[in-house]
Recover the amino acids of this structure.
C-alpha cells in the first residue's frame, strides 16, 4: 500500500515505478507532484484514494487497470496537462470531481462498466470536445459537465440516461449520436406482454439494457385442458345419445354422438304356425324400449307316408312309386330302376356226349368245352359249352 500523502508535495518527482504487489494507493499519495509526467498504476491495485494524483500538472496520460474497482473522488483533479485517459472495466462509479479541471483533455471514453457519473466529474474540462458514454451508464448527476464549453459531440448507446439538468447544459446541448448494439445486445429476461390462451398465441418482450431495443416473440397457444367425457343424453334403441366435455381454462365445449342401441327382443308369441307350404309368424318385444316386431317362422319339412308302387319295373322298363305328405297332400314320385335278368344255367340234357370206342384211336372223342350263357345281376357272364366230336 502507498500510504496517505506518501509522496505529496514532492515537486521534483518526475517518475516513479511501483511494484506489482501494491494493491492500494492512499488518499493524496502523489498530491502536488507537479513534475510527475508519467505513471503506471500496477495491475494489482484495486483502490485509488481521494485526491491521489490531484494537481499533478505535468501528468499527460494515465491508464486505470481493470483491477481497480474503487476510484476516489478528485483523484485526478487539476491535472491540467492530462490528454489521454483509459479507464478499466472494473470501475462502476466515477466519483465526484475525479477529472475536474483537466483542461487539456479533449476526448474521453466511459466504459460499459460505469453505471453512474457523479457531480463535477468533468467540471472545467474546457478542451473536451467529444464524449463516448458506455452502455451501462444510467444516470449523470448535476454539474458533471459544467463549464465544458467546447463539447460538441456525445456518442451513446443508451437512449434512456437520466441527466440532471442542473449544470449540464453543455452536455445536453451537444449533438448526440446514438449507436445500436448490433448483434451484441444485452437483453434482460422475457416478460409476458399478451398471455396466450387455449387457441390464440401470446407475446413476450425483452429489452436490451444497453440501447433499450425491444424484442418481441410469439408464445404458442397453450391448448385446451379438457375434462373427461360426460354423458348428457343416454342413447336408446330408437335415438342417438350425446356426450360432452369442457375446457377447464376457457368456455370451449365439445360434444359427440352416441350410436343408438340395438333392440333386445324376447317374449316371443306365435301368431301363425308354419306348415310345409307356408311360413309362420311370431311377435317379439324389446325388453329395453317395449317396441314390438313381427318375425317370420321358416316352413317345416314335408312328412311323407308309405310308398305306393304305381308301376312295377321290368327288365326293360322302369317303374314308378309315390308317397303323399300327411300334412298337405303333396305327392312325391320316384322312379323304380329296371330289374336285372336272372342267370341261365344249361341242363344236363343239353349236353350231349358221344363216347367212342376207347380201343380205336380214330374213334377218340375230343371234347371242347367253352364257358358261356351264364348271366348274373349287374353284368352277365356267358358260358357256352361246345361239344365237338372228332373221329
Amino acid at each position: 500500500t502507498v500510504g496517505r500523502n506518501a509522496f505529496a508535495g514532492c515537486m521534483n518527482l518526475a517518475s516513479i515505478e511501483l511494484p506489482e504487489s501494491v494493491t492500494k494507493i492512499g488518499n493524496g499519495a502523489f498530491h502536488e507532484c507537479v513534475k510527475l509526467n508519467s505513471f503506471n498504476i500496477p495491475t494489482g491495485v484495486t483502490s485509488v484514494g481521494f485526491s491521489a494524483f490531484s494537481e499533478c500538472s505535468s501528468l499527460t496520460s494515465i491508464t486505470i487497470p481493470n483491477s481497480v474497482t474503487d476510484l476516489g473522488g478528485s483523484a485526478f483533479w487539476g491535472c491540467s496537462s492530462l490528454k489521454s485517459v483509459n479507464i478499466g472495466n472494473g470501475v462502476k462509479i466515477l466519483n465526484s470531481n475525479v477529472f475536474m479541471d483537466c483542461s487539456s483533455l479533449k476526448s474521453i471514453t466511459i466504459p460499459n462498466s460505469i453505471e453512474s457519473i457523479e457531480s463535477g466529474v468533468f467540471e472545467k474540462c474546457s478542451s473536451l470536445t467529444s464524449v463516448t458514454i458506455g452502455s451501462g451508464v444510467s444516470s449523470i448527476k448535476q454539474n458533471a459537465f459544467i463549464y465544458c464549453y467546447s463539447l460538441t459531440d456525445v456518442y451513446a448507446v443508451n437512449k434512456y440516461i437520466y441527466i440532471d439538468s442542473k449544470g449540464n447544459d453543455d452536455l445536453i446541448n451537444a449533438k448526440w449520436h446514438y449507436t445500436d448494439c448490433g448483434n451484441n445486445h444485452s437483453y434482460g429476461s422475457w416478460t409476458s406482454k399478451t398471455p396466450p390462451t387455449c387457441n390464440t398465441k401470446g407475446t413476450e418482450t425483452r429489452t436490451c439494457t444497453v440501447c433499450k431495443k425491444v424484442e418481441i416473440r410469439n408464445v404458442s397457444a397453450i391448448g385446451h385442458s379438457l375434462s373427461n367425457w360426460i354423458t348428457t343424453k343416454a342413447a336408446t334403441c330408437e335415438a342417438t345419445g350425446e356426450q360432452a366435455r369442457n375446457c377447464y381454462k376457457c368456455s370451449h365445449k365439445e360434444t359427440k354422438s352416441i350410436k343408438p342401441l340395438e333392440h333386445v327382443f324376447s317374449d316371443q308369441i306365435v301368431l301363425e304356425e308354419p306348415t310345409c307350404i307356408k311360413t309362420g309368424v311370431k311377435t317379439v318385444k324389446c325388453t329395453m324400449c317395449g317396441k314390438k316386431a313381427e318375425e317370420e317362422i321358416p316352413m317345416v319339412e314335408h312328412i311323407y307316408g308309405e310308398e305306393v308302387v304305381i308301376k312295377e319295373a321290368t327288365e326293360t322298363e322302369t317303374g314308378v312309386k309315390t308317397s303323399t305328405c300327411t300334412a298337405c297332400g303333396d305327392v312325391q314320385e320316384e322312379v323304380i330302376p329296371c330289374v336285372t335278368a336272372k342267370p341261365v344255367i344249361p341242363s344236363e340234357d343239353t349236353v350231349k356226349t358221344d363216347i367212342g370206342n376207347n380201343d380205336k384211336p380214330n374213334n377218340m372223342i375230343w371234347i371242347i368245352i367253352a364257358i358261356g350263357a351264364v348271366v348274373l345281376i349287374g353284368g352277365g357272364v356267358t358260358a357256352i359249352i361246345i361239344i365237338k366230336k372228332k373221329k
User: Anything to note?
Assistant: The two ends are 175 Å apart (CA to CA). Helices lie at 169-173. The CA atoms of residues 10 and 33 lie 5 Å apart. Confidence is low (pLDDT under 50) at residues 351-391.
